[in-house]
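Customer escalation, tier 2.

The customer says the design service returned an amino acid string that "doesn't look like it belongs to this structure." They asked us to rerun it and document both sides in this ticket. The original structure tokens are below, unchanged.
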């Protein structure tokens, strides 16, 4: 079976980082914005090629090529170095998801300090057409006033599996707005071809003075009904541990469809601390239907 997106829930922790930083008025990056302005963090020391994509709401996000050559990371597959991974014979590599807009029923809440908020009841995932072996997608969790988080992900589809290249987070609240850029350097083998229950992956993202160590366990297979249609899924459990300027833990359980290359259901809980302020998030979502539109 081929899996490409169980690690997408890593983004929940990254988005929580953005909310905390906005609330605290800082981000640990190269620039700090005053209240009501935007902070830009560009800490991308990787060999990502220059790309420009249009995010939800018409904003343009640019991924810049890094200034340094990528060096080996601590990424692992089943406890062994990821660069040694060989897919089992006959395993089919994942392919990019069908482009278009997918909608998720979303519930839960987030709090930081004395403030709390909830995502819209329906949130879209916009999947762009692939560009070569890479594909960019955008999860938009903003409300009607434009407050909330837009999370962009760049994936690279290879025979060994799907690699996580970059996560970009843009967040706006009544306190201001900030942009964060988290990079896997080099791109991390986050969803190996032929993954089965009982196996695992580990990798790191870094940026904004913070490292995010991610461990994903492939737990079991399960059939769900989405939009009246039965779909086979792999249940994955993910733990992200943040260290540096921001500290804390995010855990999630996600149901991933190998056939459609999408996560179809998830539950994510995050507890993050920054500058003495604690933040908590508990969000669930489920895909409305398996096709875009």
């Amino acid at each position: 079976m081929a899996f490409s997106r169980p690690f997408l829930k890593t983004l929940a922790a990254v988005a929580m980082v953005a909310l905390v930083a906005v609330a605290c008025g800082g981000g640990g990056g190269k620039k700090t914005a005053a209240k009501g302005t935007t902070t830009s963090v560009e800490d991308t020391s990787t060999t990502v090629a220059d790309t420009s994509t249009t995010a939800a709401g018409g904003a343009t996000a640019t991924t810049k090529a890094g200034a340094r050559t990528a060096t080996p990371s601590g990424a692992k597959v089943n406890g062994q170095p990821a660069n040694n991974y060989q897919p089992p014979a006959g395993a089919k590599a994942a392919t990019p998801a069908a482009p278009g807009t997918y909608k998720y029923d979303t519930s839960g809440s987030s709090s930081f300090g004395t403030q709390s908020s909830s995502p819209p009841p329906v949130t879209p995932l916009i999947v762009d057409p692939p560009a070569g072996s890479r594909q960019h997608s955008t999860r938009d969790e903003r409300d009607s006033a434009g407050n909330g988080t837009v999370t962009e992900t760049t994936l690279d589809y290879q025979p060994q599996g799907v690699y996580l290249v970059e996560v970009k987070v843009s967040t706006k609240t009544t306190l201001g707005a900030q942009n964060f850029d988290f990079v896997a350097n080099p791109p991390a083998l986050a969803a190996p071809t032929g993954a089965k229950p009982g196996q695992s992956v580990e990798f790191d993202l870094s940026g904004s003075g913070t490292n995010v160590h991610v461990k994903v366990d492939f737990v079991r297979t399960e059939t769900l009904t989405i939009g009246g249609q039965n779909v086979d899924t792999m249940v994955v459990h993910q733990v992200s541990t943040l260290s540096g300027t921001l500290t804390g833990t995010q855990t999630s359980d996600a149901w991933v469809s190998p056939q459609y290359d999408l996560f179809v259901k998830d539950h994510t809980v995050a507890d993050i601390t920054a500058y003495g302020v604690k933040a908590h998030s508990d969000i669930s979502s489920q895909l409305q239907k398996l096709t875009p539109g």
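Tier 2 assessment: The sequence is consistent with the input. Residues 59 and 91 are 38 Å apart (CA to CA). The first strand starts at residue 38 and ends at 40. Sent an explanation to the customer and offered a walkthrough call.
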